[in-house]
User: What shape does this take?
Amino acid sequence: MFSASHFPALAESRFRVLCRRGRVVPVYSGEMIEETVRAYTSEAARGDLLEKWLPLILDTASVLCEDLPSIWHKELVQGRGRKACETMGTTQRNNVVNALRALPHDGSSPDVQHALRSWRDGDTKRKARRENSKEMRVEVTQAARERGVKIGPGQRLLQSEHDRLLDVFGQSMIERFVVSGGRALEVFQRWRANKTEYPYFTRFVENIVYQEVLFVSNHAMKLDVNAQIDLDILTHLIRADIVVTNETGFMRQAFNDIWRPQGKRIFTSPEFAAYLERLE
Assistant: This one.
């Protein structure tokens, strides 16, 4: 959506007007904002980011969403479950907005430079994941086999097998990203007993199972280095109705497999602009 070639379709549409009326309420996730702000480190894209993309986001963002780990903490550790708010509080939102508005045009922002290291670490892990995809497929297949779960070409998991993998990955993710130490088991058992009560974390774990089974069962599919971030962005369809993306690969397949059956909709930037013309 935010690229030199795709942005004009949205900028020249009725998007701003409909947002002001409250007819359209955009969901800007922490992951989407991070991916967009990465353009700050590119001299070629920085001008568009600061002069076009961020002003549109900030003009239309009545709310900004937390990143997923913060939402999981609210759901699981604070025990809010479905009542966990996915959006930033007023003070946090204002701090983020002010920081984005204050980004210097010369690329010297210390905040972005500080974040750059973690972004690069994440990129390295994504590239390693793609390059080691064959080894990972073997490892996932072996881990599944050890638990009596059979995964092969063209196979779909039985519900019991799916649930076992969900528990294995869920416990691991809680220990690594949510809470450590002795409390991790308590949190895991609470989540395991009622997964639907924790929709964002459960969707994350479902996404892990979906991704690994997809690549294990379809060896012809090329592992997408951006698969995880695509799934993270799609996760916000838990409360949103539409995703706008110009991606044609993994993200679109994941949407078709996971979200289209739930009645969600997907548009390219031009398609979304045309859709907005039909709204009153």
